[in-house]
Specification:
Number of strands: 0
Shape: globular
Helix content: over 70%
Number of helices: 17
Largest sheet: none
Radius of gyration: 20 Å
Order of helices and strands: HHHHHHHHHHHHHHHHH
Strand content: under 5%
Amino acid sequence: MWAVVAALVLVAANLRTLMASLPPLAEAVRADLGLSSAWMGVLTTVPVLCMGLLAPVANQVARRVGSARSIASGIAIVLSGLVLRGAGGEAVWALYAGTFLAGTGIALAGTLLPGIVKAVFPPRRAGLGTGLTMFSMMGGAAVASAAAVPLATALGGWSRSLLAWAAVALVGMLAWVPVTRAVHHHTLPDEAPEDVSHALPWASATAWLLAGYLTCQSWQFYSALAWLAPTYETHGWSARDAGLLMAVFTGSQLVSGLVAPTLLDRVPDARVLLVAAGVLGGLGQVGVWLAPDSAPWLWAVLLGAGQGAAFALGLVLLVRYAATPRDSARLTAMAFLVSYSVAAFGPAAMGAVEDTTGGFAWVWALLALVAVPQLALAVRLRPDLQRVGAASVVTS
């Protein structure tokens, strides 16, 4: 089991480096390529949109070839995309094409990880399994944010800095090979029984509540990921210092993303933690909006702690509100399809707001406003909600 957990952690480390490695380099990329804020935002929009639109595809691919093989394919595609993005000679087409390709791989692997967690960890340890995945995911993002500018300086440019993360994807791909082999030799479960429904749970009120919650959370997270560093660069910060601020933002997610799901294993009502996470993230956004220079490191910690906990708790609920690992995959596919497809437009939309207003104040005001419906939906996620797959009505 622990070999599978280690491979899971190494794969998860690659699910956010694509997005986190770019914002500290955004001003250099924009200056070299002549891109507007809106078009820079598209570089975050593209992978998030892939994660949304391709989530049902990942579910169907897993149905045909198994989750383990699908994740192996996903991390291989991430590797290919990172190589194209970084080795394209600072060409605009390679930057966007590589981002799209890597985003496709992230969609394939990331959609299926909650189902693997449910299959590997017992119900009372689902929070720990999700926490370890989040710890690795956000740890990779924190390192990518902090190292982006130093790597660009050491390696001779931003494109080589972006290329460096292909090495991490290669490690993840190699670590997953034994898992795929174990499934092939039937020493690990992977396939769903024939009588299990594979349809997305569109008729489930629980699924829609989770999708709405994750939509609000993801809109805030990916917009903050794209624009926190550029916000402070416009306040006179160096790219290196803005990258360190991003590392604090993502590092706080690393801690809260591990702690919050583990606490959820001991807390019967998730709403206590969901509301606390929403309040923390909202306070961070209000701080960047109204007093960006008074306590920037505190705002980054609050933002990261709130967003990391909120997303990690959502992932646990994708496991907790599903009857079987296959139902968890169906629920995850639907929730990601809805939430990421909507939230994908957040970074570009917020970039357009900055282009229009000439500053980032309105960006953070609007993000703080999105925290309100997130809190309202969190309050409705009661422990007694019907699980997906628990009755035939939720699989239509």
